Amino acid sequence: MPQHLPDLLQSRVEGDLLFDRFSRGRYATDASLYQMMPLGILCPKSEDDVAAAIDIAREQQVPILARGGGTSQCGQTVNEALVLDNTQYFNDILELDVENQRCVVRPGIVLDELNRALKPHGLWFPVDVSTASRATIGGMTGNNSCGGKSLRYGMMRDNVLSIDGFMADGSHHHFGLNGPAPSPAFAALKDDMLRLGHREAEEIGARFPKVMRRVGGYNIDALTPNQSPNNLAQLLVGSEGTLVYSTAIELKLWPIISQKVLGVCHFATFHQAMDAAQHLVSLRPQGVELVDATMIALARDIPMFRATIEEVVTGTPEALLLVEFAEEDATRHPAKLKALEEMMGDLGFSWTGKGRNWGGVTKVTDAAMQGRIADLRSSGLNIMMSMKDDGKPVSFVEDCAVELPDLAAYTAGLTEIFDKHGTKGTWYAHASVGCLHVRPVLNLKLDKDVKTMRAIAEECFDLVAKYKGSHSGEHGDGLVRSEFHEKMFGARMVANFAEVKKRFDPDGLFNPGKIVNAPKMDDRRLFRYGPDYAAPEIKTELDWSDWTGSGGGFQGAIEMCNNNGACRKLKGGVMCPSYRVTRKEQDLTRGRANTLRLAITGQLGPDALTSDEMAETMKLCVSCKGCKRECPTGVDMARMKIEVMSARARKHGVSLHDRLVGYLPRYAPWASRLSFLANLRNSVPGLATLTERLTGFTRTRDLPTWSNRPFRNDEVARHDQPKAVIFADCFNRYFEPENLRAAVVVLDAAQVTVAVAAQPEGERSLCCGRTFLSVGLIDEAKAEARRLVDALLPFAQQGLPIIGLEPSCLLTLRDEIPALLPGADTALLAKQARMLEEYIADQEGNPDFVLPLSSPAPKVLLHGHCHQKAMGVMSSIEKTLARLPDTEVEIVETSCCGMAGSFGYGVDTHEVSRRMAEADLAPAVRGADGNTLIVADGTSCRHQVADITGRKPIHVARLLEMALKKGEVSAR
């Protein structure tokens, strides 16, 4: 890299420049098996930035790589190049023509974001790839993406009308059938391409696979005479950024068909499912998707998918085919499902059948369940990658495509190849078009498995050629398949591809090594796990024994990130709240996991784990635990951050700010007794400003107010045989004791006698240790955890539920404490720990549990704490609040509120905290009328809402107390 490249760019571009080692490392991988360190990163803000970058790169002989979501399976989006990340700024809609059903967009716009903007107009872009929440239109165009509904809507090639973009010489052109008059240079280029198409038409007809799913090589078939009028945009689609840098892409849009139905077809054997696909497509569904037994089993182990599997899957099928119908006339849907059942019967399947004749159809007409099944299907790749061993399903023969009549024989042959090499494959995806995503399970850290990968690839592609299929049916060529073009297309066709590349990009500036002039696919120097990849043993504090590798499994837990980028979604669920605000790769679960992996394996220099750069990487992680539940491979960044904070604290100590946060449980009794003094910071003008630099707490916010009447254990009468025990956390005890008192009233009204978990006489109150964990003081956290375990264990051993009010504290018993102090005792406590609403929801059907509730308000707006969402508690809250008569309960669809403990009070984090709240939560609260009660269990959540909106949320315990009191009055 020219050392003055950053300076040259800095003088001419407005976008963000990232040339440090940590940032480059975060862009060195995509969702493939490869890793190539880029020279630097530019996040362009305009076409001028792109033009300047191309000019400078050409002058300095530096390659250019256009990048979107970085979700490519084949290594298209890694290179030793200047990476231009279009996702942060270059991502808007330039034009929307509703009448003519077309739009023009920048390449960095994400598919889901585009469809959200189109939905109010009754339109959508239907190339619905499984990575729609993070895949960009530019990346989809570069890959010629397909999606699950290509049977009806076609591929990107069929839906891209035109492309504007820069060529490597810096000239800018419009590639399409209509547009401005072409320049002489562009006219000459087009003439050259049409001459090539005319010259090679016969060879193209003979060598190009006839299957629909062919995305290998360049689309030079678009240049042949029988494709007239010839649209050069079709040549650029699927070119993987090697020909033109797209700046505007014109898309064909389609009307939304809002209603659909789904038939889940069960099969006793995988082969039967493959054989049935050719018959089921005759019913003209819009998609037929495969889910195999391995994916079913893995999904059952993932909390967010378990309930869906249990509801939809009958018995133990070896394969499912999800057959989706979406007719413009929805009254035809019942007939479609009936026809599907009849066809399954004609094929010999019935629920009462035996052996190979067992099978049938589960009808799914509920839109919500269809959505959950769609989420499961679209997460198929990540679910397959959730195996915790070193062996993982590897993408290299993943999306070969054959004609449907050959599908069963092809998959049988592929299975034989896997068996021969001592491995097995995982299968899912698009049965309707003969394209199945299959991944052999291999450990690419082992040279022998790399050799096995090579052998499987050679034999698989021979098999594909036998059936005249396509070796690249959806995910493109990149590093993994470009080498095999000669095997699949022949030497003459490869020479044609090289001629196209040379004419567009004679110096190989754009994404070199892809499609033409490719390296060997098994060159380990390009692998994520290269020949010298290793992690030295490191000290860790938590239990990582479910995984493998250094740090007692810490390495393996980090390596679970497969870079597919589910954390890049911008709506729905919780993760990743900081990324949703900053749109920076650094502030993303994937970005942090890559940084950790590179750090612990020595690729970011000595002491990288405890460096300032690592601290900056972790700074905006709010430990929401959204990734724990929503990352399909289970990357738990909140737990990993504890290890990073601990290592840094051991090396550098902790700041006064962190001490004030961490040691809060220790000084809380004194601060409460001296609450008048402790609260002066909020009331004395100028005191917050005076102490800001010393304490690290922003002067722009009041801190929580210490109560002068904290909750005391002796407020609850002692019972010899309590039915439950209350864990009074520090936050509710010392800041909002009215919540604990309300919980006691509610439980008493239901005739549930309670005990309060108490510390030994003379000691301070119990604490879960969370504040210490948040600043990396693990020894202190363990001490608090042991005190709590000792106090609660006798109750748990009696089978009593442990009830808490603060999600971040009570749920520590289920998550962090078992990782801090692994063993049978903490496992038992985790089993018994319940939020108040969970305990009440558990009493459904218990005739002895009665709460005389009436409506506390006409409407409740409920915000769920991140940890409640991560630990699957929200359904219990909904069930509990359903007990309130004549009360509408609306749950705010939001990510983290942004306060996240002390995060929202930090000098350098409070602004990001506010922006998190303003994404969804604050507007929803402001939009609620005055008669609506705002409810949130989290202490941080309540303070955030009050601070930003002026509305005062209450805990669910107080809501129930209000409803209880009204119920008592009405009963009188």
From TrEMBL:
Domain FAD-binding PCMH-type: residue ranges: 34-256
Going by the UniProt record, its keywords in alphabetical order are:
FAD, Flavoprotein, Iron, Iron-sulfur, Metal-binding, Oxidoreductase
Extract the SUPFAM superfamilies matched here. alpha-helical ferredoxin, FAD-binding/transporter-associated domain-like, FAD-linked oxidases, C-terminal domain
| Keyword Membrane set for record | no
Annotated GO MF terms = D-lactate dehydrogenase (cytochrome) activity; D-lactate dehydrogenase (NAD+) activity; FAD binding; iron-sulfur cluster binding; metal ion binding
Q: Which InterPro entries match?
A: 4Fe4S_Fe-S-bd, 4Fe4S_Fe_S_CS, Cys_rich_dom, FAD-bd_oxidored_4_C, FAD-bd_PCMH, FAD-bd_PCMH-like_sf, FAD-bd_PCMH_sub2, FAD-linked_Oxase-like_C
Gene3D superfamilies tied to this protein: 3.30.465.10, 3.30.70.2740, Vanillyl-alcohol Oxidase, Chain A, domain 4 (1.10.45.10)
Necessary cofactors: FAD
Q: Name one Pfam family in it.
A: FAD-oxidase_C
* Annotated GO biological process: lactate catabolic process
Return the PANTHER family for the record: D-2-HYDROXYGLUTARATE DEHYDROGENASE, D-LACTATE DEHYDROGENASE
Q: What is this protein called?
A: FAD/FMN-containing dehydrogenase
Taxonomic lineage from the root: Bacteria, Pseudomonadati, Pseudomonadota, Alphaproteobacteria, Rhodobacterales
